[in-house]
Amino acid sequence: MSSDLAGTRVAFLVAPEGVEQAELTQPWEAVRRAGGEPVLVSTQLGRIQAYDHLDRADQFGVDITVEVADPADFDALVLPGGVANPDQLRTQPDAVRFSRAFFDAGRPVAVICHGPWTLVEADAVRGRRITSWPSVRTDLRNAGADWVDEEVVVDESGPNTLISSRRPDDLGAFCAAIVRHVRPTRNATTAGTTRPAGAGLGDDEVARQVAGQTSSDRQAADVFARESAGAGSDTEAARSGADDLR
Questions:
Q1: Can you say whether the dihedral through the CA atoms of 236, 242, 244, 246 is positive or negative?
Q2: Residues near 227 by Cβ (< 8 Å), separated by ≥ 6?
Q3: Which among 113, 130, 177, 182 is annotated as catalytic?
Q4: Which end of the chain is more exposed for a tag (fewer CB within 10 A), N or C?
Q5: Which of 187, 224, 211 is nearest to 29 (CA)?
Q6: Is 94 helix (H, G, I), strand (E, B) or coil?
Q7: Which PROSITE patterns does this entry report, sorted A to Z (predicted)?
Q8: What is the Cα–Cα distance from 61 to 48, expressed in whole angstroms?
Q9: Of 19, 5, 160, nearest in space to 79 by CA
Q10: CA 198 to chain centre
Q11: What is the pTM of this model?
């Protein structure tokens, strides 16, 4: 396990239903393997339902609701895709506020697929270079973004680093960019020792680390299913799911 993200906490914001599973689990595992602490944030406690495209996949436990989560407690934000996931989030004021706060604080945001819908609602993409699932292109351009068709885009022209990718096929490059550009920002005491952006693992190395995660993700999800079947309450089920992702 690398220690490139040691000391970082990374929020993964998802709706209760509709997130594309690979776009949650693979960046989550990349952060964890690099020594960071991923945290699952949603609009309600309990378990979120992930999808493999249009098919129900696995469920995962929520660590904290977006209503009470403080953006200042995190070093970066990841917004996975899936059509229904950001479509729900962009209607939730707390989720929009939470997402916008990372831009205002100058902290990295990584978004993939349909995820930018939430950022459009937050008016956070104006003047930024970004990519997405093709059907989101017009929405982004109408919101003032410079949309491009590339595997991964790292835009540092605004108040923060904005990382974006188009689809699950881009996850290797997307995860590599997250590991390279996220760094501890929460504590003033780390100011003198913070890694410069891009000082993490090389893209090829991170891509190799995350490329084989599909089978391990499935195994972890199977463990969650067995454990949560006997959980006595939603709180216990949520705890089981959170432990499983870790």
A1: negative
A2: 240, 244
A3: 113
A4: N
A5: 211
A6: helix
A7: PEPTIDASE_C56_PFPI
A8: 6
A9: 19
A10: 18
A11: 0.80
